[in-house]
Structures are given as structure tokens and as C-alpha cells.
Amino acid sequence: MNEGSQALASPDPAERRRHARYRFAEAIVIRQANGTCTRATTSEISISGLSATTALHLVVGEKVQLSPVAGATINAIVRRNSGTVYGFEFIDPPDKVVEGIHALCRGLFPFRGAKEYAN
């Protein structure tokens, strides 16, 4: 884990994920390998991936492109599915995109533990 990723590592030991997640609701486009594109709405983001809701049927393990993510198109793999919510892991994001995600996350509320910020 590099120094930048460590700064956004999940502080909760019970959290299975490598990186802290942040609330993030934005429209994105998912492009499948066959060229099919559809709109989706994100619900959270981290340095290593994001979750999004879409009506498109995706298969766990499928490789897709997501855009825009920190202003760029990024390759990802479908890691989980629960109804219409999909979890995507970024595949080798360019350093510039990782820096953009770091900057974005610094201004967002944590996905879990937001009660601390309710006051």
C-alpha cells in the first residue's frame, strides 16, 4: 500500500475493504466490452472502486469501462452484485486518476460512521 492509499485506508478493523469508502452520488456511464452503454448512479467511492445502481445486467467478473471517474474513463471489473447495485474494482487506474479520487474523497462524508458528522 503506498503512502497516499494508506492515508485513506479504512479505519474500522471490522471493515473488510482495503480503503475507506465515501458517499458519492453522481451519474456515470458503464460501457461493456460489446459496446453496450448505460447510465448508472454511484452511491459510494474509494481509491480502489465504487458502487453504482443500474438497470443493466452485469456479470460478476465482467470487465467494463466507467466514466467519468475523476474526469476520466477507467477500466473496472464487476466484483459484487446485489439486485441492481454493483460493486466495481478499478483496474490499474492511472496515477492522475488516483490523485483525482484522493482529492475528491477528502471532501466527502464517510460511507459508514457518518453519525459522527451529524451534529
What proportion of the residues form beta strands (DSSP E)?
A: 35-45%
Largest sheet: 6 strands, antiparallel, barrel
CATH superfamily, please? predicted glycosyltransferase like domains
| pLDDT < 50 stretches | 1-15, 113-119
In helices, the fraction of residues equals 10-25%
What is the CATH domain class?
Mainly Beta
Tell me the CATH topology.
Answer: Thrombin, subunit H
| Structural classification | mainly beta
Order of helices and strands: HEEEEEEEH
User: On the 0-100 scale, what is the average pLDDT?
Assistant: 81
Give the N-terminus to C-terminus distance in angstroms. 33 Å
The count of β-strands is 7
Count of DSSP-assigned helices: 2
- Radius of gyration based on Cα positions: 14 Å
Shape field: globular
Widest sheet: strand ordering = 2-3-4-7-6-5
Number of domains: 1
CATH architecture descriptor text:
Beta Barrel
Question: Mind sketching the topology for me?
Answer:
Blueprint: H1 3-7, E1 22-23, E2 27-32, E3 37-45, E4 49-53, E5 63-69, E6 72-82, E7 85-90, H2 95-106
Antiparallel strand pairs: 1-3, 2-3, 2-5, 3-4, 4-7, 5-6, 6-7
